[in-house]
Amino acid sequence: MDIAVTAFTPADRAAVERAFEIQTAVVTADVPGFPTPDERDFFVGMKHPRTGYAFERCLAYVDGDPVGYLEMTMPQLDNTDNVTVELQVLPDHRRRGVGRALYARAVERARALGRKRLMGMAVAALPDGAPRNGAGNGFAAAMGAESVLAEVRRRLDVTSVDQPRLDAMLTEAWKHADGYEPVRWVGATPEDLIDDVAYLDGRLVQDAPMGDLDWEPEKVDADRIRKVEQNHELRGRRMYHSGLRHRESGRLAAWTEITLADGNEWHAFQQITIVEPAHRGHRLGTIVKIDNLRRVLAKEPDLRVIDTWNAAANDHMISINEAMGFRAVDTWHNWQQSV
């Protein structure tokens, strides 16, 4: 059996199509019920990568057939010692050396670029949860990587949301939130909020449990936020935001975001939820999350489920999500290896 690892660029349409097919097959096999890649998002994302990151991509061929895909992401503005790795092998071709060949290429390129560590994620089953094959975790361990942060994915079935419970949560939360007013937007952030959004976005790594993951706070400013928003628009992603502004200071004190892709209208991701430290203890996170959920439900009639991830140690945010109806589905291990 001959294994060949070949780099490709977004200009190689045939290679991009093979990568899309491999990723779709792997997600379908390894994470049943998870949205497969949206075609527009995938192909446009290749041509218009996220600002502040460089990418290298390879396909692995066995006797001329593409059976594995490697994407390496190199942050350019911060975390410049790191390479994030997404490595996928078709299920029928696993345990034959394809993954090792792709991982060896990732190590080789990381060292050539002066990077110090590789990072990646792999899904596993929860006790009494839906089955997961765990192949990615076994592979990472075999490569010598260490699991440094466990996250749990929770899913909300929006067809069975307990609206009276949300009403009660909101009523109680607002008793603690005098002096704040809601702000809402879809898509690009209003100019009067952009600096506050950048500040809150940049706080996420500081505030969320990170385990032993070697990831430094990101340098986020208004320009970086704008470029992310433009990239989302190009890729067909809809962005719903809710926040709370502190009346006295005029500053954004809390903010949350839910995103959807045009090709997967049945599914959404609950993204960041963050409260500025000086304003914690006022139930602001609960208010913005419920407010945004209800706005999305009113605007997206085809939506059926929302997924979100939290560090397993993030008890506060988990308690809010579970009170809203999110339920644990599986766990995702962040793996890290020095090279």
Automatic annotation (TrEMBL):
Source domain of life: Bacteria
Keywords: Acyltransferase, Transferase
The keyword Acyltransferase is assigned to this record: yes
Keyword presence, Cell inner membrane: no
GO molecular function terms listed in the Swiss-Prot or TrEMBL record: acyltransferase activity, transferring groups other than amino-acyl groups
SUPFAM superfamilies the record matches: Acyl-CoA N-acyltransferases (Nat)
PANTHER family named in the record: AMINOALKYLPHOSPHONATE N-ACETYLTRANSFERASE-RELATED-RELATED, N-ACETYLGLUTAMATE SYNTHASE-RELATED
Full protein name: N-acetyltransferase
Organism: Polymorphospora rubra
